[in-house]
Amino acid sequence: MPLRMRPLFPSLLTALLAAGPVAAQQRAPLACADFYGHANAAWLAQNKLPAGAPSYSRWDQLNALGVQQRDQVMAATTAPANATVSVRLADLFASAGDEAAIEAQGIRPIEPMLAIVNKIRRPRDVAPAIAALHAAGMPVIVDLQVLRDARGNPYAQVGPGGMGLPDPGFYGNADPLVQPVEARYQAAVADWLKLTGSAPAKAAAEAAAVLQMERQLAKATLPGVSFTVMPTAEAEKLAAGLGLRNLLAAHGLKATEVAMTGPEFFVALDQLIARTKPEQWKAYLRAHIARDMAPTLGKAFHDPWAQLYDVTLRGQDAPTPRALRARWVLEARVPELIDAAYTQRFLPVPRQERAKAIAEAVRAAAIERVGQATWLSEAGKAGARQRLGAMTVQLGTEVPDNVFDDLRFSRDNLAGNVITLRKWLMKYALVRARFAWPAEQWQPMVTYLPKENRLLVTAATLQPPVLDDGGSAADFGSLGGLVAQQMSLALAFEGADKAAWDKRIAPLVPQYAAYSATGGATRVNGAGTLVQNAADLAGLEIAWAALNAQGKPDAAAAKAFFTGWASLWPRQDVATALAAAQATTAHAPAKWRVNGPLANLPAFAEAFGCKGRVAMQRPAKEQVALWR
User: Fold this and answer.
1) Secondary structure letter of residue 120 according to DSSP
2) Using an 8 Å Cβ cutoff, are 296 and 418 in contact?
3) pTM of the full predicted structure?
4) Chain CA centroid to CA 161, Å
5) Region 177-194: what's the mean pLDDT?
6) CA dihedral (497, 499, 501, 504) positive or negative
7) Most-buried pick from 229, 355, 544, 582 (CB within 10 A)?
8) Phi first, then psi: what are they for 402, rounded to 5°?
9) What phi and psi, each to the nearest 5 degrees, are found at residue 136?
10) Which range among 262-276, 331-345, 515-529 shows the weakest confidence by mean pLDDT?
């Protein structure tokens, strides 16, 4: 039996977010004068502008709710049994708070890595050891990442690493404020070396040698050097001593090209590999394993790290609690794990499936409207249909569930969990890059990425007022309208088709320029907001067609559709700020994002009985039609 979740935010906020279609559909004559004010009367009355804020909107509320929901996910050390990703996340956070278990583990979690280092006998053993450490979840010497290019394709990037201080400028710096930092770092390295096998009498000298190696790497790490994409064979020559193919293989990558930083760092690294004694390399690698894992190990490792990085370098009064640091690391390094847990908790599968059905209905309606457009050439129609048909539409995270199957955490082994997580990151680097989003799932966002032909709606968006579980026609007006709006923006025409499109949208400029931005003399920037105004109107036309394709809506459903759109946009503004924004803004004021497009739609007038000369029904000869 599914677990029923308790309300996750205050009842007042619940009421405000959920308030909408029913009450706003009453008293039709008021709807014909100012539908924005009519549909959003309750919200506008209950939500005054916060002190000092230039604006406050329904989307600000949705943003705040997303943050609140994310914080609940991140704070949990328990989770519903059927929320598998949340269970894993809860186990990880529980391990970060169990100091007794961390102490009991000792150095056992890093012993396999230390064993790799201890096998080094000759200089030629160094590069294989580096690759083996990377495979074990310890990225020493170089930073290797899988990123996305402008078209969404994954690629590998290899850059400088191997330094324990946060910037190369810390090394050998004569500044009296900086010099003590290097000395404290060297002392911490000596402590870590003693904890990982160095004789106490030799630890200081070994730490000095480690610092000297890092100084050589720092000297060769030039600021501002960009990465260059090159064939892997050429990159291998640049980093001959590193064994680049083995390093890529350790990450599970088979790349024909790789992005490399400038040659100076790799020349210095080759020289270190060739000229540095194996025993010195062993000390260097042990020091970096200990430094890297110190935040997850017992106090003997953790305290020198915290004093150096949290107190000395960050200027904190006290070290950051482990649980909070674990949260920061996850947010920065593994956002999709948080996204998956968030989605499991706050986006029910039936709601997500309804969102997909609405999006597909909108896509079908858009393709149909394109086919019926008499003003488009056959080539223009074919191009638009192809772009719409090939478009990837993602509503909420869609990382395959089995991606997380082998990500298992123990509640009593923080260091082991971090190593497990790193191995998982490497194994699924290509998948993660392929499914990467420009925002997190707890951040409300609807956007189109033109270079990837990809339309994205985050999980946080798929809740009231954009979408609820009631199955109302309002969902077509809200979510459907937003999806159709973005699909309209995806269509770029050329030549005569572009001229025809520009002619169709041109009347929107004087329409919006006639509106008062604030109720005073300042007018809406009709030219500056033209693209978005056209997208709003096109989105409503297409979404309305999508709703009608399900069967002709009755009067209540028609009213719900238009109210669904209006409920997205209530907003309070400082009048002077809104007036000043008109010079540069690309968006019309909230009132006109509702009233402007609806005044061009005969279906709106029919739904609310608007007749005669009323503000919400422009004369038929002046109405702008884009896709109807």
Assistant:
1) -
2) yes
3) 0.81
4) 26
5) 95
6) negative
7) 544
8) -70, -10
9) -85, 0
10) 331-345
Q: In whole angstroms, give the CA distance from residue 502 to residue 504.
A: 5
Using CA atoms, how far apart are residues 238 and 232, in angstroms rounded to an integer?
A: 10
* Torsion sign (Cα): 358, 362, 363, 365: positive
Residues 6+ positions from 300 with CB-CB distance below 8 Å:
191, 195
pLDDT of residue 434: 72
Give the DSSP H or E segment for 56: strand 55-57
Is the link from the previous residue into 465 a cis peptide, with omega within 30 of 0? yes
- Give the DSSP H/E element, type plus range, for residue 72: helix 58-75
- The answer to whether the beta carbons of residues 6 and 29 sit under 8 Å apart is no
pLDDT tens readout for residues 538-574: 999 999 999 999 999 999 999 999 999 999 999 999 9
CA dist 188 and 165 (Å) reads 12
Amino acid residing at 351: R
162 φ/ψ sector (left φ>0, alpha ψ -120 to 50, else beta)? left
Looking at residue 15, what is its pLDDT?
38
CA dihedral of 32, 34, 37, 38, whole degrees rounded to 10: -10
Say how far apart CA 544 and CA 362 lie, in whole Å. 9
- The residues, ordered by sequence, that sit 6+ positions from 571 with a Cβ below 8 Å of its Cβ are 55, 56, 57, 58, 589, 590
Say whether 147 sits in a helix, a strand or coil: strand
The Cα–Cα gap between 322 and 99 comes to: 9
Of 336, 325, 356, 342, residue with least CA distance to 66: 342
- Residue 325, burial from CB neighbour count under 10 angstroms (0-12, 13-18, 19+): middle
CA–CA gap between residue 252 and residue 224 (Å, rounded): 29
**Per-position DSSP letters for 96-142, written without gaps between them:** HT-HHHHHHHTTGGGHHHHHHHHT--SGGGHHHHHHHHHHTT---SE
**Closest C-alpha among 6, 2, 8, 3 to residue 460:** 8
| Measured distance CA(220)–CA(268) in Å, rounded | 6
Cβ pair 134, 450 in contact under 8 A: no
Give the helix ranges, DSSP H, for 373-494.
378-390, 414-427, 429-434, 474-475, 481-490
DSSP one-letter code for 516? B
- Single out the residue of 25, 12, 37 nearest to residue 570, CA to CA: 37
The secondary element (H helix, E strand) that includes residue 269 is: helix 263-275
- What per-residue confidence (pLDDT) applies to 374? 97
- Contact in structure between 36 and 58 (CB atoms under 8 Å): no
- pLDDT per residue as tens digits for the range 47-67: 999 999 999 999 999 999 999
Residue 325 corresponds to which tokens in the numbers above? Answer: 């640091």
Give 300-326 as a 3 state SS string. HHHHHHHHHHHHHHCCCCCCCCHHHHH
First-to-final CA distance of the chain: 47
Q: Are the beta carbons of 330 and 338 closer than 8 angstroms?
A: yes
